[in-house]
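May I ask for whichever protein you like with its backbone structure tokens?
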Amino acid sequence: MRDYFKRIKLNALISAIATLVLGIALLFWPATALTLLCRVIAIGLIIIGLSNMFTYVGARKTASSPYSGIIGIIALLIGIWMYTNPESVVSIIPIIIGVIMLFHGLRDIQYAFETRRNEGSFFGSILAGIISCILGLLCISHAFGVVAFTLQIIGIFLIYDGISDLIVIYRTSKSLKDLQQNRDAVDGNFKEL
């Protein structure tokens, strides 16, 4: 039973330290982490693309589907593009979110003017629409920075998670040691009558 708890403690300790290291990396080097992540995914796509192409070429004499070769070429090209342009890949997500926010902000401003005709009060709605438009434009114009900032926030969360895991592991380990010492003390003081 003691070995079982030691293995659990070791696994939890490794997990906590890995989480802490990942959190620190995301907090202090978000751009590098994003680039590395994109390149790892790109290498995977390149391997998948080459594999599909070789499978297609090797099985061409049989009743092989041409889609395998086409999928291979597409995966290979996307992988090469992702590997050479990781910032572009990462920037696509905030740009899409920015366009949606800009659209919603403009729509909110339009609704505010329609509300003004009916109710007269529209300042809060216009302000909300303007803020949405500004945030949307920021997402579009600083897409990579938005992603890097988000990763820094995630890094802070992971650092907290790693530190809290280390504290819990320490307290649990100490509690188990105290329990074992108490159990040994009770067993040592026992005398048969």
Notes: Residues 2-182 form one domain. The radius of gyration is 28 Å. DSSP finds six helices and no strands in the chain. The chain has a mean pLDDT of 82.
